[in-house]
Amino acid sequence: MTAAGLPHESRLSDAFVSLLGRECVRDARADEIGVARVIVEPATIGEIAEVVQKCARDRLTLAPLGGGRILAQIRREPVSVGLALRRCARVVAYEPEDLTVAVEAGLTVGQLNELAGGKGQRLAVDPPLPERTTIGSLIAAARSGPLRLSEGTVRDLLIGIKYIGREGRVVNAGGRVVKNVTGYDLMKVMTGSYGTLGVIVEAAFKMRPVPANYTVALAGFARLEEAFDAAFRSSHGAPLLHCEIVSRRIGLALPGSPASANDRRFLLIAGLGGTRAEVDYQLTQIRGAVGTLIEALDGAAAEAVYHAIRDCPAAEATIGARIVVAPSALAGALEAAGAEFCAHAVSGIAQLFLDDVDEQAAHEAVARWRALAHRAGGHLTVVAARDSVRAGLSMFDEPGAGALALMRRLKAAFDPSNIFNPGCYVGGI
Amino acid sequence: MGSAPRANQAGGSASPGAIRDVVDYELLFDCVHCGLCLEACPTYTLNRAEMDSPRGRIYLMKALAQGALELDADVVRHLDLCLECRGCETACPSGVRYGQLIEKARVYVERNWRRSLRERIRNRLIGEIFPYPRRLDWLLMPMRLVDALGLRGTLERLAPAALRNWIELLPAARADAPRFPRAAAVHEDDGPGKAVAVHEGCVAQILTPSENANSARALEAAGYRVVRLERTVCCGALDIHNGNRKRALAFARQNVRELSRCGAEAIVSAASGCSAVIASYGELLREDPVWATAAREVSSRVTDLSSLMIAGRTPFTREFVAKVTYHDSCHLAHGLGIREAPRALLRSLPGVTLVELAEADLCCGSAGSYNLTEPEMARALAARKADNVVATGVDYVILSNPGCELQIAAELRRRGSKIRVMHLADFLALAAGGGEARGAR
Amino acid sequence: MQKQIDPRVMAELREILDPAGVVSRPGELNVYECDGWTIEKSVPQLLLRPRSTAEVSALLRVLHRHNLPFVPRGAGTGLSGGCLPLAPVMICTSRMNRILAIDARNRRIEVESGVVNLNVSAAVKGAGLFYAPDPSSQAACTIGGNIAENSGGPHTLKYGVTTNHVLGVEIVLPDGEVVELGGSIEEPCGYDLVGAVVGAEGTMGIVTRATLRLLREPETHRTLLAIFDQVEAATRAVSAIVASGIIPGAIEMIDHLIIRAVVDAFHVELPLAAGAVLIIELDGLGAGIDEQAGRVTEMVRASGASEVRLARDEAERALLWKARKRAFGAVGRLAPNYATHDGVVPRTRLPEILQRITRISQSHQLSIGNVFHAGDGNIHPIVLYDERDPDQVRRAIAAGHDILKACVELGGSLSGEHGIGVEKINQMPLVFTPEDLAAMVELRHVFDPDERSNPGKVIPQPGACVEVAAPRRQAAL
Predict the structure, then answer these.
(1) What's the total number of domains in chain C?
(2) CA dist list (Å): A1 to A6, A63, A80
(3) Which of A163, B201, C374, C410 could connect to A198 by a Cys-Cys bridge, CB 3.0–4.6 Å?
(4) Domain match, C149 and C32 both
(5) What is the complex's ipTM, to 2 decimals?
């Protein structure tokens, strides 16, 4: 659709004002301008459905915004309508005794966990900046953090979903029970779909208990290979909550500047949870496995370190990317990447980034990283590119031909008029 | 063929075939078709087809009984291929008495199916020779000569394929078999003192005579009183497996008479196949007007060498360093449910290290005369067993049935393996200092 | 009427496989007319047993050209009729049973889809690893079947079901195209199509290979047996444990009716007068486990347990699990026939669903026993009946429907692990709207636009409902 065919901004917002009322429609803020031309903020799922119906009728493109940060990176041109779900942020049902929760998509992970914390529980997915991450974007962008090692990801904890699909159709899948094989698993299909298949409006999750104690064990290494060996040995010796390896810059920036970070290039940061006895026991196991000096932090110091590694600064860098490879291949890839990084060391996933590079250097870096990912049987997604370096970068990698053909068919089936966040996902979907 | 699924016709109107008079029709319905028997069935593990699985065979029997299926070469083939190892009974959660079902189905097949001339001759040979030790002894005379002259290899090369299988199974003359030492003096008082009968079987008497003898001596050393049996005969296993029920019953009656009369409180046999059959006499002679009660009594006394040895006084004082593995003979494990005792006994021997065998309770393919009637499947199973044995890296494979011994030994010999296959009784003799077996390291 | 396979097509298919790979004689095909769901039966016209992906692909290309539907089959241990042949051709993966690669460092294993579940764990035991999903049929069922049904088992409370452990699959689409989805990596590139295929009950093509995630074996176990006078107290205990922040490996419940059967069958020492028992298995680090076991014991007692026993050794633990896993078989001792159902409710609603089941039992005048995965809220009511009495059969079917309806009313679902298959296909509208179902059909069409892979399963089609006649006994879980 060409720009000439688009209704003017003011006409566009008028149309939605008459649908939702004045207070639910606004102009795009400065950071949203590249994302959507007009922002609507419906207050109910019914209103979201109406917005989608209207978009379908008028062939207007739309995208759910979440915090807006991800779309700002991946969209090349704005969609007509941006859906902000901050008014759809209710807790639909929290059953602490069942360890399940159902929430609307506009709630943030931070808000949910503040509520659940009172019951000693949490949604055990920990993307960077949870207080700015909505449930909708958590699912749509399949975000995760260090805890993925022990608790899994959205994919493992999402037990039910409601989304608005083609023609404004409300679709449910799954339910609110922790074990369920009734019908196809549309939760998986929506997870990581980046708003291209519909607008997620409600989700149900398994909740997890917060461990009684949390200790962070740190060890510094001169060589990356050593750090990874230690990570694999540690995770085999103890059921770690998380196991991260960070490059020097991240290590030095950790709060309380742990001694281990000072003289070594790579820092291993393992999280231990459980009863006091269990934590102490695991610490002994890790000491045995790593065979080097280990620093252990508890309480607030441990939490501070955890927050720092969870909120890896890759998303704020000049150029940042997420590499996913076979776990044993990660060390080699990082060695050759020539970048700062935060790695989920035994999951084969890392965020790579460079600051203060020019366009050419940024593009070369992405090409190099991508080649490394492919060689290691994986793929690379660009998660951050400053405006200065962004032109011409493909953010997503290309799946295999057979898989991509299926993905195109999926997009065509779920969004035949191609209005849901079009043109910026894998293979140009 | 209609597309609509048809309703189950269990017990329905289909005209009942004669098989309904033979198999216990109601027993077929204990099977709930859950499939847990599949991987416990040796023929399924190799063929991977339902027809060659226990629940598949039960399905065939049911279809025969309901008149939905005619007895044909296919059905006979699938029923014939069953080894009657009863691995499925161990796996079955519903307590299906598969052994009983297949035995009776075979009776039905033998009555209603005309086999090829070749099969008839073969079965006749097996049936007329094996159960009678003297006939077998006579038949084997030439082989002894061949062995004495060292011509076994030549013979195996020259013999036609069909015969070669048979020859390869025959053990070489066993002058060097270990012998349980008498030296370990028996003190009647400190042992259990219980009277035990060692049923000598039929084929075992000729092919592996040391095993019965060593069983008896080991039991005596452990403090048991071993009673002599006068007139026992073949347990009837071959007839049961081959559908010759009439002679099986006759053998059973004679054995029950003898085993009752001897006053043994426990009954063992070096052939666990025989033990399991004796343990089933109660069921077999359930309707016998004269012998039903005695048969039940006899059946209840059946146990095995290892269980008795563990309960007795240990005669093993000297260290015998060896790495061994243990193969579960089907009828000991699945028939009598004895798995732990032999392992515990082996572990208790000073110097002996027991390594677990992968698929230890999967049939080796011997199965009575199965390796003679179904050589192809038998060889495939033997190969699988040998693969697992070789992977353990042991010096000895211990087992409790002569059939398994011949079968596994033949396969290992073909591969040029140095691993010794030994009956538990012979191994105990060896461990107690009763002479070195050839090949032991 | 089902389409008759043209003899020329038959010949084309034969050419692809070895002689043992083709079964076409009616007597032999008869054996394949049902799986563990034996109420409905249908004989395929042709059974194909390929040994490789290439063979599967070649077969499907021929079937595609002639527009013939097919039904994929693993070991046929499913409990909802997932591989009931409602198509002329059946394709069985049981001969594709090679373990292709074990990668201990990455904790991955790559297998052909016909590999038996238990053999996966057996293959990696030496490396201190295991494959977590453990359906009770694990000694026989195949990974391909597990993927189709998204199978669970007792230990899924802590470790999750099949979908949580499948990283990649190779699938042959109904037109014969071979597609790789996912891989040995933790996050897919693009849509999570592996997640769509797992649990699709074979309606998207034939999975021929899978890359599975392995877990490290827990250091140690503690297995507790808690005895209750009242089943309600037992369900309260379940909620208390789950809410406390301790996640046991498994929490299983057996009620008084089943206790009777189990004591008879396995000679386990359980009090016949007990209203219910819980088997609670904790696993984890040696360092903390006794403390946990102590806390669980306290909670269970506080909920009203009259006695709590700790399995003293591996043999006692094994006996408890044997009694649990084989409880269904033992039920055969209580009645000539039984039907096992599979429903889910939120864990805290267990007391209510059990009360409802009691009422359903009374109103239909049939005994109903319960043995189930309490920690997951996944119930398996067992309805006892005698098929020789047609009225009882009718009541047994009605009772099953009522139970599932009650599950849905209490916020639960139709199936926790047995799948929809043909068994519950007509109850799908209890849970899903026509729009929900339409979206699911659209997903299926992405893979199988002509609905030729396992037709007649999962999604109800108006006017095509399967007639349920007389149920036979059914095995369970």
Answers:
(1) 3
(2) 8, 16, 11
(3) A163
(4) yes
(5) 0.95
